[in-house]
């Protein structure tokens, strides 16, 4: 039987890659999930594992070839020879739960998400020697945006924890070792792990091409870098860490690399608490600063009279909830109004790619949500095609999952425009920061009764300030003001949304 090896999904908007390195040649025995080759895209390196055990067949795409998503890379001939890798590579065999009791089972880092290569071990819920049942949560990992729970792959005893809390682990790396089955001897775990270095040293291990290039550019020798990839391979991230460690050790440049902290008195220092930033908070800080450094960001303001929206909501909210099973909030009105305005001013829904402007003929609306660990932006796809009820259901569902840390990476990617509602926290006015590579973000604020002149008379009206931050490289002032006015018009007279005016 012949199994095809094809190009995996490369990432959002990435359609092709280059074959960087083949680690197997025709006729070589391969084990299931063993790495066959490495592909390089514009931004990331993608490893291609063997979909089945067997013997390597024909290599369809050679090193240096450009291949598209799902293109045929090679073939694997399944058969009796598939048993050879299992006998030669005992370390790989431990990655699977043992069929009978008493076997050693590795607890591995699960798939973390598109383009995410590492995570931090935030919490262990079990300690070495504890009994565990299959699918019981062992630990929690923290990536740049989401928390990932790691369940037990089998029932048994947790014999050894290899990555402690605070340690950084690579995707596919080993977290711990279990002995499967009741009463499994703990001593079996070290015996299973012992052959691992042999498998690393016995293979023709190739470092990642991107890592080789980075080492050459940085002038770092291979011996100075510790590989964290499969079989001890050096990855690009390993080179960056080695370079950072080397610069930190240098006596003069290190202090100049960052501004020193202001002096603190001994009395104040004794009352301070130092807490390491979470990976999520570090990512938020980095992305916001990158946004300021990259985009020519400008903010324009307007205000909207919420009288008509509030009256419409109060009139139909009971009937709406009874029919659709979800409350009618203000976010669906703002989402609809923004989708309406984006059709008229498409550059606010576009992005810059090099010297090109990419216009989106759809609206994937990002709805910023505050969580206990930081701000996340789940994306409602094709919001321009959705009804009020569908939008409210999507916002409620994604908001709840965001607060519980259950959002996947895919649910926070691909947004074309973002709405941020600071009004829920009492903000009267603010300038939201762009969520790159988007070119626009709408800031909502609190509704406050203010005196307004209506038909020559001063009356109290529920008013809200609106702020549109936009990338002036692609959006002109006229377009930004027009967009905000269209949102204002739609909210002050919601019938315009039904009439498409």
From TrEMBL:
<feature type="region of interest" description="Disordered">
    <location>
        <begin position="185"/>
        <end position="232"/>
    </location>
</feature>
<comment type="pathway">
    <text>Amino-acid degradation; L-lysine degradation via saccharopine pathway; glutaryl-CoA from L-lysine: step 6/6.</text>
</comment>
<dbReference type="Pfam" id="PF02817">
    <property type="entry name" value="E3_binding"/>
</dbReference>
<dbReference type="InterPro" id="IPR036625">
    <property type="entry name" value="E3-bd_dom_sf"/>
</dbReference>
<dbReference type="InterPro" id="IPR001078">
    <property type="entry name" value="2-oxoacid_DH_actylTfrase"/>
</dbReference>
<dbReference type="GO" id="GO:0005829">
    <property type="term" value="C:cytosol"/>
</dbReference>
<dbReference type="Pfam" id="PF00198">
    <property type="entry name" value="2-oxoacid_dh"/>
</dbReference>
<feature type="domain" description="Lipoyl-binding">
    <location>
        <begin position="2"/>
        <end position="77"/>
    </location>
</feature>
<keyword id="KW-0012">Acyltransferase</keyword>
<dbReference type="GO" id="GO:0033512">
    <property type="term" value="P:L-lysine catabolic process to acetyl-CoA via saccharopine"/>
</dbReference>
<feature type="region of interest" description="Disordered">
    <location>
        <begin position="246"/>
        <end position="274"/>
    </location>
</feature>
<feature type="compositionally biased region" description="Low complexity">
    <location>
        <begin position="246"/>
        <end position="266"/>
    </location>
</feature>
<dbReference type="InterPro" id="IPR004167">
    <property type="entry name" value="PSBD"/>
</dbReference>
<dbReference type="Pfam" id="PF00364">
    <property type="entry name" value="Biotin_lipoyl"/>
</dbReference>
<dbReference type="InterPro" id="IPR000089">
    <property type="entry name" value="Biotin_lipoyl"/>
</dbReference>
<dbReference type="GO" id="GO:0004149">
    <property type="term" value="F:dihydrolipoyllysine-residue succinyltransferase activity"/>
</dbReference>
<comment type="function">
    <text>E2 component of the 2-oxoglutarate dehydrogenase (OGDH) complex which catalyzes the second step in the conversion of 2-oxoglutarate to succinyl-CoA and CO(2).</text>
</comment>
<dbReference type="InterPro" id="IPR050537">
    <property type="entry name" value="2-oxoacid_dehydrogenase"/>
</dbReference>
<keyword id="KW-0816">Tricarboxylic acid cycle</keyword>
<protein>
    <recommendedName>
        <fullName>Dihydrolipoyllysine-residue succinyltransferase component of 2-oxoglutarate dehydrogenase complex</fullName>
        <ecNumber>2.3.1.61</ecNumber>
    </recommendedName>
</protein>
<dbReference type="InterPro" id="IPR023213">
    <property type="entry name" value="CAT-like_dom_sf"/>
</dbReference>
<dbReference type="GO" id="GO:0045252">
    <property type="term" value="C:oxoglutarate dehydrogenase complex"/>
</dbReference>
<dbReference type="InterPro" id="IPR011053">
    <property type="entry name" value="Single_hybrid_motif"/>
</dbReference>
<feature type="domain" description="Peripheral subunit-binding (PSBD)">
    <location>
        <begin position="206"/>
        <end position="243"/>
    </location>
</feature>
<keyword id="KW-0808">Transferase</keyword>
<dbReference type="GO" id="GO:0006099">
    <property type="term" value="P:tricarboxylic acid cycle"/>
</dbReference>
<keyword id="KW-0450">Lipoyl</keyword>
<dbReference type="InterPro" id="IPR006255">
    <property type="entry name" value="SucB"/>
</dbReference>
<feature type="compositionally biased region" description="Low complexity">
    <location>
        <begin position="185"/>
        <end position="202"/>
    </location>
</feature>
<comment type="subunit">
    <text>Forms a 24-polypeptide structural core with octahedral symmetry. Part of the 2-oxoglutarate dehydrogenase (OGDH) complex composed of E1 (2-oxoglutarate dehydrogenase), E2 (dihydrolipoamide succinyltransferase) and E3 (dihydrolipoamide dehydrogenase); the complex contains multiple copies of the three enzymatic components (E1, E2 and E3).</text>
</comment>
<comment type="similarity">
    <text>Belongs to the 2-oxoacid dehydrogenase family.</text>
</comment>
<feature type="domain" description="Lipoyl-binding">
    <location>
        <begin position="104"/>
        <end position="179"/>
    </location>
</feature>
